[in-house]
Amino acid sequence: MYKLNESKMFADVTNNVAIIINSETGIYYAINNCGSIVFQSILNGCSKQSILEALKKITNCPSDIDQKLNAFIDDLLQKEIIAEGETSDNNPAFDEAVVTKDNFEMKVSEYADAQEMLLADPIHDVDEEEGWQPVFKEEEDKKNDK
Amino acid sequence: MTNNPLISVMMPTYNNGKYIKQAIESIYAQNYNNMEIIVVDDGSTDNTREILNQYKDVKYFYIEHKGISVARNMALEKSKGEYIAFLDSDDYWLPNKLNTQMQYFKDHPDCQIVFTKYENIFENEELKKNKRAMHEKAIEDTFKQYLPSTVLKKELFDKYGAFDEKFSGIEDAEFIYRISMKGINIKHYIDKVFYIRRIHGKNITLQQNRTIKSIITSILRKGVLNK
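YS: structure for the whole thing
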């Protein structure tokens, strides 16, 4: 079906909120909860049909869910977030509460307010061979606990 | 004596003995007459210390290697200036940078942070030809909020916090994003090149480092949820 357009996009879905960064333009996208879990299933290689069937099983699924799903996928394609890819045998299982909370709406919001951060290349003073690797506070705390 | 406010020039460094002399000399070449130079050496194992020993009024601090955010924050702690300027030790400034920016502050009393145009230079011809180099060149004219080009008021750090050590590698961009989310105008910009940024090869890049990207998405998610 589809896959992430990895040539320019980086995506992360956490706590049912997908954030996708276009590393060429510095624009980023956020997807609402319902859209994010559908998006995750797309990244998992689920077919459009299997997604549609899983959505239809949810109580109070609107009759135009197929149009909603098509519009969502078209939007992702138009924004070049996803591209054609292979379909897997994975079947999606959606959290009913998440889908119904958003009333089955799948929405992609676009932001350009972090271009300065996203287009920044974190190059500073680095070792020619290894670079200046990040040191994360959690790792430091763990070390200190030992 | 001078009536000009003190600028603390902060330079974190790590194994940049090859370039640091040019960086330091470019600070001395400024015609601004009230500044202190603070170098925090993040555990260099090359000749950085020997080079810096030649400059008696450089305030040099050596720490165990912990990453650029820690080094920047230590420099911040040691700084006494009302204003802060940055220079990465593999880059250099062009003359009259500080004067121009300080004049900008005088002309724009509401300004708290002012950027300048920067230019990438490539260490060798091979680097110039790769895809990343082309990308870097392409964004030179559009990417205006490059923290090392700034002079900013130190009170911004007092109000909004220092560099977040979780984000070492993108701590400068995260700081800019953070203050912009607090309503600080980050559009003050001098459209003239005063900062030369050296591209010299095997560095961390946004395109290559998935960990950094994951951190960035967590920053953005937090921002989106607060919108």
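YS: worth flagging: The radius of gyration of chain B is 17 Å.
IM: good catch. Also Chain B has one domain: 7-160+185-202.
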